[in-house]
Write a structure and sequence with these properties.
By secondary structure, the chain is α+β, with helices and mostly antiparallel strands. Strands 5, 6, 8, 9, 10, 12, 15 and 17 form an eight-stranded antiparallel beta sheet that branches. Strands 7-11-16-13-14 form a five-stranded antiparallel beta sheet. Keywords: Disulfide bond, Glycoprotein, Membrane, Phosphoprotein, Transmembrane, Transmembrane helix.
């Protein structure tokens, strides 16, 4: 029987092909003969050269015509490094959502953003990924030029004695109502001693609720300080290790005011030499913070700080995370902890100059938010000592002096800045403001004007348009209204006439009102029916020896004498005043629209002959002002509101919105006495009246 044919047997048996005789009579193998005789050495060399030349010319073409972006290829290779062996083994741990060691449908949901990663996995990864051990010897800082910062002793940042009672976050009954609507948070204001000059000016830092625009609505109102707090107006930038900061925008004024775009800022260097080796771990914790997962971020940075206690960047990240958590929890204690951590980060060795600067700036800002103005001042003074060439830090130091009412020190700081950087717009507007507060009206104008025209960051502020226009008006310069118009176009004023800085949007705006318009007919009738009783009580305390009438102190008079006797201020009775005029106060007790008006006053006003009050505006559109005539000379007394001039009458009430420009003349032969009653704007809701902060 013939053997069975199969592949196995064929593999075992090797068959040698038969030899064939070619036409030249030479025997060759059959396979060679079938191929036509095979390749000669010359042919092989020729083909080799052809292929080589093709490769050379292809390479030349790629380079010559720039067909491949090699830098991009290299960067992408670095960015998307992936261990293929892990794919074969099924170890896609980077996308393992449930910690089971494989990549499945649940993990895909994480990639698509349909599911959050479990906290347990995040914590496990923090422990695994951050397992890089810190070297025994600390890296040298030659490449990073770290600044040797002298330690800041505990007593270097003196806290005000009143700080313990300052809580802009906690124990706020009016922070959120039962409906869950966000409202204006009441924060402490400057004390009287620290508010004499800068803080009492219209639109000053401490009186401004939150931002230059000071927009307030029923659903979202802006915090305003009450006792000793600088509201968080301009947050200090938080430069990150892996983020390029944006170029600061320049205000878009009219064509002649648009400066050249500032040069792009350099990326801050926050990592020292060693920290670059743990950048991935720092970035992972930062990612949590930027996503708003502040609790997880705090834990992640605490882990890093435990592993790398000498890392300034890890400590700075912990401070930022604690800061964010304080804001989320509305906790002063947590914010104080963050302030302490900022200090720790700034004192560590091998901190880069950029990190020291960012850390101490943030510390000063948060100290100001908590009302620790003197502590913030000391922190900024330390910054200026370390970075004496940084004019922006000196500008911040000037503001810190202004916030505690130290105009003289602020003036010296801005003089130093302008001596070094004469075109610094921020220094100019603040220096001009100080000159105007010293009643150096003419001298203040060029600084305010040039500063606004510079368009520098921090100059596009309603306060500076306000004061420049006011200074020009006092010099008889009609270009004041050009600046008011620009302030209106920039969104700082409701109109050229209505220039209050503390406004609630959407309220009816008109200069003059009738009693019927206000809806407060009963109050008006009570005042007019009892005007003689009110007049007699006022005259009984007008004797100068009583000292109850005090001179107007807001620098609103061009000339003359103007005295005031206050009964209610910011919705509260003013001391013992009502004991001197009990009948008048008794008449008003049942009108909460007046006695409860936290943004107004109730007071007597006496003006002597020869008095002129400059054109000015009140601070807010949240109130209307009633004037009850008590003693009115027959001629010579008048009040202008916008372009409408009127006169008082004894026993009659005039009502106007003092957020509009108004002006007063007293050219009679005897004194003029009126009773001023501020009331809430009638369109404010009860909720707004309860939650708007005092002015």
């Amino acid at each position: 029987m013939a053997p069975r044919k199969n592949f196995r047997n064929q593999a075992k048996k090797e068959v040698k092909p038969a030899a064939v005789v070619n036409k030249n009579g030479v025997k060759v193998e059959a396979s060679v003969a079938a191929s036509g005789g095979g390749f000669s050495g010359t042919k092989i060399f020729t083909w080799f050269m052809v292929l080589a030349l093709l490769g050379v010319w292809s390479s030349v073409a790629v380079v010559w015509f720039d067909l491949v972006d090699y830098d991009n290829v290299i960067e992408r290779a670095k960015e998307f490094r992936f261990n293929f062996s892990e794919v074969l083994q099924g170890k896609l741990s980077a996308y393992d959502a449930d910690g089971d060691g494989d990549f499945d449908v649940e993990d895909a949901k994480v990639l698509l953003g349909l599911k959050e990663r479990p906290v347990s996995v995040l914590l496990r990864e923090a422990k695994e990924d951050y397992a890089v051990k810190e070297p025994d010897a600390a890296p040298t800082p030659d490449d990073d030029a770290a600044v040797p910062l002298p330690p800041i002793s505990d007593d270097f940042i003196p806290d005000d004695s009143r700080d313990e009672a300052t809580h802009p976050y906690e124990d706020e009954n009016n922070a959120i109502d039962t409906k869950g609507e966000l409202v204006e948070k009441a924060q402490p204001q400057q004390t009287v001693e620290e508010s004499k000059q800068y803080n009492n000016q219209p639109g000053s830092y401490n009186n401004q609720p939150g931002s230059p625009e000071t927009k307030e609505t029923e659903a979202e109102s802006v915090p305003e300080p009450e006792a000793d707090v600088e509201p968080e107006v301009e947050s200090v930038p938080e430069p990150e290790a892996d983020v390029e900061p944006e170029v600061e925008s320049v205000p878009e004024l009219e064509a002649e005011f648009v400066p050249e775009l500032k040069a792009k800022k350099k990326k801050p260097k926050l990592l020292n030499k060693f920290e670059k080796t743990i950048k991935t771990e720092i970035d992972a914790a930062e990612k949590l913070r930027k996503k708003g997962k502040v609790e997880e971020a705090v834990r992640a940075f605490e882990t890093l700080v435990l592993q790398y206690p000498q890392s300034p960047r890890c400590r700075y990240g912990k401070a930022l995370a604690e800061d964010g958590l304080a804001e989320k929890m509305l906790s002063n204690d947590m914010l104080q902890k963050a302030i302490g951590t900022y200090k720790e980060a700034s004192e560590l060795p091998n901190a880069t100059p950029d990190l020291i600067k960012a850390t101490l700036k943030k510390r000063a800002e948060r100290q100001q938010f908590l009302g620790r103005m003197r502590g913030a001042l000391a922190t900024l003074e330390k910054l200026v000592q370390i970075f004496p060439e940084d004019m922006a830090l000196k500008n911040d130091l000037g503001v810190a002096h202004l916030l505690i009412g130290d105009n003289n020190s602020a003036k010296r700081v801005y003089e130093e800045v302008l001596a070094t950087a004469p075109s610094d717009g921020f220094a100019k507007v603040h220096y001009g403001f100080i000159l105007k507060s010293e009643n150096k009206i003419a001298e203040s104008i060029p600084f305010l004007r040039d500063g606004l025209e510079s368009g520098d960051p921090g100059t596009d502020d309603g306060r500076f348009y306000f004061h420049l226009g006011d200074a020009l008006q006092r010099m008889g310069d009609d270009s004041a209204y050009k600046w008011y118009e620009r302030g209106h176009q920039r969104g700082h004023f409701a109109s050229v006439w209505q220039r209050s800085l503390y406004n609630v949007d959407g309220l009816k705006a008109q200069p003059w009102w009738t009693p019927k318009d206000t809806g407060y007919m009963d109050l008006v009738k009570t005042l007019e029916r009892n005007w003689r009783i009110i007049r007699d009580e006022a005259q009984s305390v007008m004797d100068k020896t009583t000292g109850l009438f005090v001179p107007e102190e807001e620098n609103l008079r061009e000339k003359g004498e103007w005295g005031q006797f206050t009964l209610w201020q910011q919705g509260k009775k003013a001391g013992e005043s009502c004991r001197s005029v009990p009948k008048t106060c008794g008449l008003l007790e049942r009108y909460p629209e007046a006695t409860g008006c936290k943004r107004g006053q109730i007071k007597f006003s006496v003006m002597q002959p020869g008095t002129h009050v400059w054109p000015h505006t009140g601070p807010t559109n949240c109130r209307l002002r009633m004037h009850l005539g008590l003693v009115i000379p027959k001629t010579g007394c008048k009040i202008r509101c916008t372009n409408d001039t009127r006169a008082w009458e004894e026993g009659k009430v005039l009502i106007f919105d003092d957020s509009f420009e108004h002006e007063v003349w007293q050219d009679a032969d005897s004194y003029r006495l009126i009773f001023i009653v501020d009331v809430w704007h009638p369109e404010l809701t009860q909720y707004q009246r309860q939650t708007l902060s005092p002015i």
